[in-house]
Amino acid sequence: MKITYDHIADALYISLTDKTPVDNIEIQKDISSCDIDEDGGLIGIEILNASKTVLDCHKVEIEHYTTLAEEAIIKKLTKQESTT
Q1: pTM for the full model?
Q2: In what order do the strands lie in the sheet with 11-15?
Q3: Cα Dmax for the chain
Q4: Phi, psi (rounded to 5 degrees) for 83
Q5: pLDDT tens for residues 47-71?
């Protein structure tokens, strides 16, 4: 995932994959839209007038990111707890 902000266009873009969009769906007029791939999958979200919509476009914070290793540990611990 990649998040970019263009201060000249005042647009925030959240790219979910590296695929090329084949279509765009407007969510809210002149504010946000979604890019989709050839299978109809979501590949990106654009937010126009981002400085008015998003409080601080220059600061991006990820609260929690679970890695595959963490997921495996959680599954193992959960499994152990259910057998005891």
Answers
A1: 0.65
A2: 2-6, 11-15, 42-48, 32-36, 23-28
A3: 59
A4: -95, -10
A5: 888 888 765 656 666 555 556 666 7
